[in-house]
Amino acid sequence: MEPEYVFVFYVCVLAAVSAAAFCVYGRDKKLARRGGERIKEKHLLALAAFGGAAGAFMARIVFRHKTEKGYFSLVIYTSLALQICALLLIALAWKGAFK
Question: Over 90: is that where the pLDDT of 95 sits?
Fold first, then answer.
């Protein structure tokens, strides 16, 4: 598969999972305010780790949700850094940096 297709596919996956993470974090904040059954933290963290770090990062800012939990910061920031590195590596491959 050509690197440009991989790049576009990866960007689309990151965008879709980030949008889902943003919505799920927002839903969990709404449930927290209403006292409803909450979304498990492991599911929130999994969304961030598996492509949704940008959405989780933005949701924490917009909804002020899970900002006091240090391990959320660790997982989200680490995942965001890894996802950006992967994106940069794919972009470099696309531009022929590894030939």
Answer: no
Q: Is 52 exposed, middle or buried (0-12, 13-18, 19+ CB in 10 A)?
A: buried
Query: Which residues, including other chains, have CB under 8 Å from residue 58's CB and lie 6 or more apart?
Result: 18, 22
Q: Which two tokens stand for residue 90?
A: 């794919």
* Degrees to nearest 5, angle at CA 25 with 24 and 30: 95
Of 19-23, 28-32, 55-59, 64-68, the one with minimum mean pLDDT is 64-68
Question: In the chain, what are the domain boundaries?
Answer: 3-94
Q: What is the pLDDT of residues 41-77, one digit of tens each?
A: 999 999 999 999 999 999 999 998 777 778 889 999 9
Q: How far is 98 from 65, CA to CA, in rounded Å?
A: 41
Determine the Cα–Cα distance for residues 79 and 33; give it in Å rounded to an integer: 27
